[in-house]
Design goal:
alpha/beta; D-Maltodextrin-Binding Protein, domain 2; 2 domains; seven-stranded mixed β-sheet; 12 strands
Length: about 280
């Protein structure tokens, strides 16, 4: 990948790898751009997706590049601009990509994503009602966990900006620090984001409740890919998940346990969030 193409994509992560096949001298290898949602720090994503990059490069005999973006809105903008051939993104953003640009769902990640409320052990709270009058820090205000969490708090009689205020942080790694400093009474965070917090900080936090489980990430093929290539991508991802050594390494580092064919109705289940997602992306 040249410096010119790096600048054009403005990627925070770029990895490149090619299979040295016997016919490499006679054939120019294809290039697969894998876009990964920046739900955790680029440094962590870089390490987590290296096994997938290696596996796809070998199995597809292609150069594979892994990219992300500075934030969720920028990442989705690049997705719908068709900068990625394969996209791993949150389910509500995946639904928009499917509706607006014809992305093809390939596999979904398991298990579902846990929505969690955590607090500092040094300042314990016993019930969600104790958020009233306080500040809640959000690991990601654009996430499906946050959308569901705000609904859950409303169901428990707590309305945002009336009963509590919210703040957010530029990186997920700093959420724990916000709580430990006392700048927020609790944090709303996903299970994966919680595990991404450095262990020394995480050990000082305690779970109040798991308030919901939302669908995991979805991998989709760009509409630029012909049907057979999209089908091949799906088969390779399922192979990666079902026994490949690289897949085992990926699951060990991420906390995911499987990739499965997208269940009937999963994409449509995101429709209640479509309008809110559009507003969030345009804010």
């Amino acid at each position: 990948m040249t410096s010119t193409s790096v600048s054009r994509r403005e990627a925070l992560l770029v990895l490149a790898g090619a299979l040295a096949a016997p016919h490499a001298a006679q054939a120019q290898p294809s290039i697969l751009e894998l876009g990964v949602l920046p739900n955790i720090s680029p440094r962590v994503l870089l390490a987590q997706y290296e096994p997938m990059r290696k596996f796809l490069a070998r199995e597809m005999q292609a150069t594979v590049q892994v990219s992300t973006a500075p934030g969720w809105s920028a990442f989705h903008a690049r997705t719908v601009a068709l900068e990625y051939d394969l996209v791993v993104t949150a389910a509500h953003l995946a639904r928009l990509a499917q509706l607006d640009k014809g992305f093809v769902p390939l596999v979904s990640y398991a298990p579902p994503i846990k929505g969690m409320l955590v607090f500092a052990k040094a300042r314990p709270i016993a019930a969600v009602s104790e958020l009233k009058g306080g500040t809640l820090v959000l690991s990601n205000p654009q996430s499906l966990v946050t959308f569901r969490g705000m609904n859950w708090l409303d169901e428990n009689g707590l309305q945002r900006d009336r009963d509590f205020r919210t703040i957010s942080t530029p990186t997920d790694d700093s959420v724990g620090n916000v709580v430990l400093r006392g700048d927020a009474i609790a944090a709303m965070i996903s299970g994966g984001e919680f595990l991404a917090i450095p262990e020394a900080i995480r050990q000082q936090l305690q779970l109040l409740t798991v308030f919901a489980e939302v669908p995991g990430f979805v991998a989709l093929a760009s509409p630029r890919l012909a049907g057979p290539r999209a089908d091949a991508l799906k088969a390779h991802l399922l192979g990666f998940a079902n026994g490949a050594e690289e897949g085992k390494a990926f699951f060990a580092s991420t906390g995911f346990v499987a990739m499965r064919e997208v269940a009937p109705g999963l994409m449509e289940s995101m429709d209640p969030y479509v309008a809110a997602t559009r507003r969030m992306l345009s804010a």
